[in-house]
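dumping this here before i forget
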Amino acid sequence: MEVLLRKTRIQNLDYVFSSYPSRSEESMMIAYKFVKELFCRVCKQSLRFCNSKYGIIEYPFLFRERQLDSVVLPVISTLCKGLVIAEYPIVRDSNMKGFEKDDSNGRVDYWCIYKEYSFIIEMKHSYDAFKTDTTNDARLIQRWETMTVSQLQDIRNEIKHFGEKTKGMIRLGLHFITPYSDCDRKMDDVVLFEGRQKDILRRLSRDVCRSKPKTTMPNFMASWVLPRKDKFFEVPIKGIYPGLMLLGKFFPMISHDGCIEYNNSN
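structure:
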């Protein structure tokens, strides 16, 4: 079934968002709202890095995951009223073929609490040649599969024992994708991206879930176009970088030890 995508304008910025998830559980609706607001705030915050006063055009999404964290972490902190920890220690355990782990010590990118739910978040960043008909970057697909098939699965037993008094644990994968074109900086390419955002998101969604579709199918998609007044075509990197995209995956809520105390106190 094709995901419904719609264009919308929020605070003078233009976006494309996928529709609400088909699941009607409160936890899935909360997860959708969290990711949507996070994406909007990351985009808005990124505009601060096009600053004529300081003579900079350094959008964080032009770089890698570590630099993107410069805006993602503050946004999560704001949404969660400060209840967020980055690089949260966790034990990973998996018998899945190719992803075997046995009580391996690791970290998740973020742990936070939003609207009475605990969130465990993994984040990735990739680039996409938006003029292509297929997703040619194998690294993009591999990162998505690693996050959804391995990283967010091998923590299930561990997070069941978390003790915070919340309604439940939600595992969330965020894959930020920077669209680009290698050609000379032509406004035609920017117009092309703006008009093809829905097709590009559907192509990305199709290509990242060829392996284990039930597990890897995104249930959130978003795209944002930089305002024309911003100097996105003057970035000191060859090519066109017209905006930012996001694939998200949130899994059904897991009841954890803290749920019992939460329910008893309400």
